[in-house]
Amino acid sequence: MRRKRRILIIDGHPDADPGRLVHGLAAAYGEAADAGGHAVRTAVLATLDIVPLRSRSDWEHGEMSQAVGAVQQDLLWADHLVLLFPLWLGDMPALLKALLEQALRPGFAFREERGRLRPRLQDRSAHIIVTMGMPGMVYRLWFGAHAVKLIRRSIFGFVGIRPVRTTMIGSVERQGVPETALRQMTRLGRRAR
Questions:
Q1: Is residue 176 very low, low, confident or very high in pLDDT (cuts 50, 70, 90)?
Q2: What letter does residue 140 receive in the DSSP assignment?
Q3: CA distance linking residue 115 with residue 33, whole number of Å
Q4: Cys staple from 189: which of 29, 70, 78, 125, with CB 3.0 to 4.6 Å?
């Protein structure tokens, strides 16, 4: 029998319009995970109070909003993270990057010990799900899937989150709401992948 997981879903679309595909995918994943007996919490970027950091001092010592503090507590609770976002100009939306910068601060996500940086979020896995207008294969092969590599290596890898799986859902403007993508999220959610 598959182990029951504690899953944090970060719906990383900055637009609160409920018609956005990312919102539908996050909901489908969450509903299936819940039906599969997994514990699920969701953070919806569009509803969070996020202020971009402007200096290293802000990152190291600045105050953070209650919303960011709640995301940090959910990260500590979770053993699996699902991050969904639309690809904007080849990268994650700026507000999502601001959330990650705010939440993954020194002392919380990593610490310095004897002159070396030590990750603090080990024993967690993740799945990055990206929607885009171009075909997913074009983004992966021609553009090198830059945003996914950045998150996998330089953000999640830095703080100890691994393994990190990825799913790219391309050509969304031409397909509308792809039913196959919703079915895929249901399968992933049920299995907590």
A1: low
A2: H
A3: 41
A4: 29
State percent of the chain over pLDDT 90: 78
SS3 127: strand
For the whole model, what pTM was predicted?
Answer: 0.94
Q: Which run of H or E residues covers position 129?
A: strand 125-131
Instruction: Please return the burial class of 107, using the count of CB atoms within 10 Å of its CB with bins 0-12, 13-18 and 19+.
Output: exposed
Joined tokens for residue 60: 């190291």
Question: Crossing angle of helices 66-77/94-103, nearest 10°?
Answer: 70
Would you list the DSSP string of 8-67? EEEE--S---TT-HHHHHHHHHHHHHHHTT-EEEEEEGGGS------SHHHHHH----HH
- 52-57: Cβ within 8 A, 24+ apart: 52/94, 52/98, 52/101, 53/98, 53/101, 53/102
- CA 187, CA 132: separation in Å to the nearest integer? 21
- The reply to whether omega before 106 is within 30° of 0 (cis) is no
> What torsion do the CA atoms of 165, 170, 173, 175 make, to the nearest 10 degrees?
-100
Judge whether residue 1 has pLDDT over 60.
no
